[in-house]
Write a structure and sequence with these properties.
By secondary structure, this protein is α/β, with parallel strands linked by helices. Helices cover about 30% and strands about 20% of the residues. A two-stranded parallel ribbon has the order 1-2. It is globular, with a radius of gyration of 13 Å.
Length: about 90
């Protein structure tokens, strides 16, 4: 069985975030995010618009952690995806 590799991509709005846990690779930005998502076996992500669209396009199984921010309502987006069976 291959070793488990965990990568935390904070995104451009959270670049000052440090590594979340020991053993988790921290990347502030990933220019080839769609390719990385396509290689993943599971993605755990917030329900931001771009992130959600990229994960759905990749077809990778995902667990979404909805949150409300100043600019976005991820909770509403998660409910919307749930209603349509995503």
């Amino acid at each position: 069985m291959p070793a488990l590799r965990m990568i935390f991509v904070s995104g451009p709005q959270n670049e000052e975030t440090g590594p979340p846990l020991p053993g988790v690779e921290f990347v502030p930005f990933e220019p080839k995010m769609p390719a990385l998502l396509g290689l993943a076996r599971l993605v755990i992500a917030h329900t931001g618009y771009n992130t959600t669209q990229e994960i759905l396009a990749a077809g990778t199984p995902a667990a979404f952690l909805p949150m409300v921010t100043k600019y976005d309502d991820g909770v509403a987006r998660a409910r919307q995806w749930q209603r349509v069976g995503v």
